[in-house]
Amino acid sequence: MNIRTAQERDSKRIREITLSLIILRETKEKTGLVEYNTPTEEEIKNRIKGNKFFYVAEENENIIGFLSAYTDTKLKKLNFKKDEIINHILKKDSSFIFWDQLGIIKDYQNKGIGKNLSDKFTQDAIKSKYKTLYAPISHKPHRNKFSVKLVKKLGWKLIEEIKVYNGLIFGIYKRDL
Prior knowledge:
By secondary structure, the protein is of the alpha+beta class. The protein has 6 helices and 9 strands; from the N terminus they run βαββαββααβαβαββ. It has a single domain, classed as Aminopeptidase.
């Protein structure tokens, strides 16, 4: 398996993975992207462009997962105006990196790929000028136990829960570097 910085040409596959992982708030599934408003391929390209905190995991040159994160500066330049979580964090702090998504195709889940992507992100974040990381994780109606366990293992702390998107509750996790 290889982890590398995402390139614009990866946007189509990243979008496919994102769409495959969306779950509805009524579902019985325990992990996934709860009612995530999937960006277009062009929006994903813009999110990747010049972003050293957007990664893909590959197996035999096939993208099997990704991790997307953005500096506060990048968030302000992109079209996140309707994202209640990002706007909440932008009001709280400046000079941070926001871990937006971690997505692994179902056949490769629970094989350490998410941890490997997280480790790469953390290593790069430590080397950067940024000293604060934030990540939202679904708490209700579906508590993403896998993600909560992963970030706690990596030293993140729950700082608050917020209600967004007509009743979904997300935990906001923070890590100081």
